[in-house]
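$ ./design --mode recover --in tokens.txt
reading tokens...
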């Protein structure tokens, strides 16, 4: 079998979720050379900002049934065949694991002359922090001899597009916030080569592309500019989204309905504020005719701001203005010109500022193409409290907007993948969609990010080094979660030496005298609450933090379980004993018996919900005390409070203390966000920077994991534990995907604290049902519950 056939089979199995076949195919792929060359544009600074058009014409006597090509670029590309968009990429990663896409373009081909074309761009110094780069380049490799006629080399033509320039480079300063998602696009339509992607476009004046490197070494060769690996996730979704309503403006906004062209007269100006109705991530597409000399500015925002810079109720616009990321388009006067930014935009509100010149501008249409990882909602939840439906829908929307080629902390400001956020996001993905491919990629990305000390980077991919030691612990927790939910031994086993590296780094920093963590370098972030400067609690950097010492114990307990499963009894015993010591010594030195709470350090000067939460989660707080401690966590308003993010661990601690029934009543912060007009869940309570932050989407997971009580009871989800916590709810229904099928529950609370209902488990899956100290053995198929 040829190398290229191996590539195709790899993608077939990968997209179907068939991981068992991957190693042999990957080995075949990673030990060959491609005959194509990486190509670029001559006479340009190869690492500077630039937008480029690549083309190749070819003739087919017959249309083939199959025509497979492999593509990649640096930074990004959008690929066309005969003028029709096919795909875009590459999936973000790093230079040592540079992704290529594989697509079958047969359905786009015609008999006679054809053209393949790629729009390639390099953001240079303006690139998003999540974008790693070497230099401007494009690559296409045919899958077999027939397709190799398209291989990139000097037969390709290239044009540098002088119409593009970066704008919106000051967004962070304007919003007074950390903003690293990249620039906006300013496009002068008079300089754009309209029709360049079509077969009949004349390209004889274009330059001949230059070879950068040949042969292309796939996999782990030497002296690679990019070490190519196949994409392991599906292509991103694109689907039409119509904008809901015009909120204000002096221009007729009926164009958003489609088929209702609007004319802005010459020498005029106008402003139109559009409301999508909910936060979204999309490629806005503006279609105009005429309007030479006009300027159209498109500004994108999650919310509007009042004169004090506050957002307030997100539905309100009175006395508020828009600020943030923007694009600029200058029409050339042609007919049905389409402007689409190079990269996706995040917005609920989109404002057009229009100034016309000597020619009227015709706005033909404006809409969005929603984009993101193609998750499907394969879970469901309902209850007698219909208001929970909004929390479910908004939580899932939040999670979806924060998932693309990587998980994002937030889609507007950063688009960076952090372990703390990603752990929660990945669990949501498993429970609501059942798709584990992006979780696997995230685990692998962080595995590839490790620094010499053994820690993972705090976010990755990233072109700036940032190490957050507690997030390395959450990477181990992610691996634990994957182990509990999926049977994938080889994938986990190959990461175990990196788990040792993280835990060894921490073990070297344990204060031998106290038995707690001593001083630690880097950024020891825990939570964005008001009492932790820069998110760092006292003791985290200078030594003896109860919170991070106990987080280490929590992670060591998980690691011990994993190593025991893989029969490394020495490691399992060592990590278990180390966890016990940390838990014991932290409790002894930091627990304040009079207050019934865990102090942040042995000095017992400051207290937070976080310390007691981790004390209960680890068992550092004895089981007989756990309930009283958690009651103090909920009642003591002097404690520094968990934000939306860390309430995920608050819920875990309530479950550990046997208090999960309090979860339903704990949803007020999310209800308050909805009442304040948010359509996704925010990073923090107001004043919030990001209105869409996936670490706040945990209710959509907990409705199934906590209220319905569905959780794995053994590695690989081989057995199920169902321990419902209805709180004040009377009836719940839930269904979630499982590797073997679907788990379904329908429960109704009855008098005297009992419960009736039905549980359905997939074939081959058994488990236990727990209710008020009673247990029922569960078997595959449907069974009645009557307790």
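writing sequence...
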């Amino acid at each position: 079998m040829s190398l290229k056939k191996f590539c195709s089979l790899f993608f077939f199995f990968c997209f179907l979720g068939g991981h068992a076949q991957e190693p042999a195919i990957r080995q075949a792929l990673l030990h060959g050379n491609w005959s194509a060359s990486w190509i670029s544009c001559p006479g340009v600074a190869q690492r500077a900002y630039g937008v480029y058009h690549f083309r190749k014409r070819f003739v087919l006597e017959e249309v083939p049934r199959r025509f497979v090509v492999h593509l990649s670029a640096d930074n990004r590309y959008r690929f066309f065949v005969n003028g029709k968009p096919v795909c875009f990429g590459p999936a973000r990663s790093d230079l040592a694991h540079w992704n290529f896409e594989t697509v079958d373009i047969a359905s786009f081909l015609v008999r006679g002359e054809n053209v393949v074309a790629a729009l390639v761009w390099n953001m240079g110094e303006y690139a998003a922090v999540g974008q790693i780069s070497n230099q401007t380049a494009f690559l296409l490799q045919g899958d077999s001899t027939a397709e190799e006629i398209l291989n990139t080399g000097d037969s390709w033509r290239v044009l540098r597009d002088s119409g593009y320039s970066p704008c919106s480079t000051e967004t962070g300063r304007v919003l007074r916030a950390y903003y690293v998602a990249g620039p906006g696009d300013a496009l002068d339509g008079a300089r754009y080569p309209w029709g360049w992607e079509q077969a009949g476009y004349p390209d004889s004046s274009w330059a001949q592309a230059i070879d950068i490197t040949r042969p292309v070494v796939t996999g782990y060769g030497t002296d690679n500019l990019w070490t190519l690996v196949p994409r392991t996730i599906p292509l991103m979704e694109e689907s039409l989204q119509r904008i809901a309503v015009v909120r204000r403006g002096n221009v007729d906004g009926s164009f958003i309905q489609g088929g209702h062209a609007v004319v802005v007269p010459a020498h005029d100006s106008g402003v139109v504020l559009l409301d999508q109705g909910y936060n979204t991530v999309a490629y806005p597409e503006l279609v105009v005719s005429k309007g030479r000399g006009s300027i159209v500015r498109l500004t994108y925002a999650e919310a509007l701001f009042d004169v004090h810079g506050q957002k307030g109720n997100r539905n309100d616009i009175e006395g508020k203005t828009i600020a943030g990321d923007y694009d600029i388009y200058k029409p050339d006067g042609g007919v049905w010109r389409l402007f689409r930014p190079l990269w996706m935009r995040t917005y609920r509100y989109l404002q057009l500022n229009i100034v016309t010149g000597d020619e009227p501008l015709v706005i033909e249409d404006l809409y969005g193409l929603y984009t993101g990882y193609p998750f499907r909602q394969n879970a469901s939840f309902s209850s007698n409290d219909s208001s929970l439906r909004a929390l479910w829908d908004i939580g899932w929307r939040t999670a979806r907007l924060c998932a693309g080629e990587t998980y994002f902390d937030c889609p507007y400001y950063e688009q960076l993948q952090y372990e703390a956020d990603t752990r929660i996001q990945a669990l949501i993905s498993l429970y609501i969609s059942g798709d584990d491919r992006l979780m696997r990629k995230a685990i692998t990305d962080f595995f590839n990010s490790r620094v010499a000390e053994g820690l993972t980077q705090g976010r990755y991919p990233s072109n700036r080094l940032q190490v957050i030691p507690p997030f390395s612990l959450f990477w181990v927790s992610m691996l634990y979660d994957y182990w509990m939910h999926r049977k994938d031994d080889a994938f986990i086993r190959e990461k175990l030496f990196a788990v040792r590296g993280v835990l060894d780094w921490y073990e070297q920093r344990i204060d031998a005298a106290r038995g707690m963590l001593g001083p630690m370098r880097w950024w020891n972030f825990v939570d964005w609450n008001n009492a932790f400067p820069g998110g760092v609690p006292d003791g985290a950097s200078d030594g003896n933090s109860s919170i991070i010492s106990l987080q280490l114990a929590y992670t060591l307990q998980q690691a011990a379980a994993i190593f025991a499963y893989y029969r490394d009894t020495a490691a399992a015993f060592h990590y278990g004993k180390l966890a016990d010591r940390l838990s014991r010594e932290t409790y002894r030195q930091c627990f304040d018996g009079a207050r019934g709470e865990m102090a942040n350090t042995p000095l017992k000067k400051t207290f937070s919900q976080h310390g007691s939460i981790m004390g209960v989660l680890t068992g550092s707080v004895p089981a007989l005390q756990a309930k009283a401690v958690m009651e103090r966590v909920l009642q003591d308003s002097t404690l520094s409070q968990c934000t939306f993010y860390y309430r995920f661990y608050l819920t875990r601690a309530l479950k550990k203390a046997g208090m999960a029934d309090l979860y339903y009543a704990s949803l007020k912060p999310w209800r308050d966000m909805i009442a304040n007009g948010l359509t996704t869940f925010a990073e923090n309570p107001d004043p919030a920077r990001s209105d869409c932050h996936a670490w706040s989407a945990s209710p959509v997971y907990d409705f199934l994991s906590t209220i319905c009580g569905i959780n794995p009871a053994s590695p690989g989800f081989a057995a199920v534990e169902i321990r419902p916590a209805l709180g004040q709810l009377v009836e719940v229904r839930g269904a979630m995907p499982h590797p073997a099928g679907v788990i379904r529950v329908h429960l109704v609370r009855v008098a005297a604290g009992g419960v009736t209902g039905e549980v359905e488990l997939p074939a081959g899956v058994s488990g236990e049902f727990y209710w008020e100290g009673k247990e029922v053995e569960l078997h595959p198929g449907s069974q009645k519950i009557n307790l």
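exit 0
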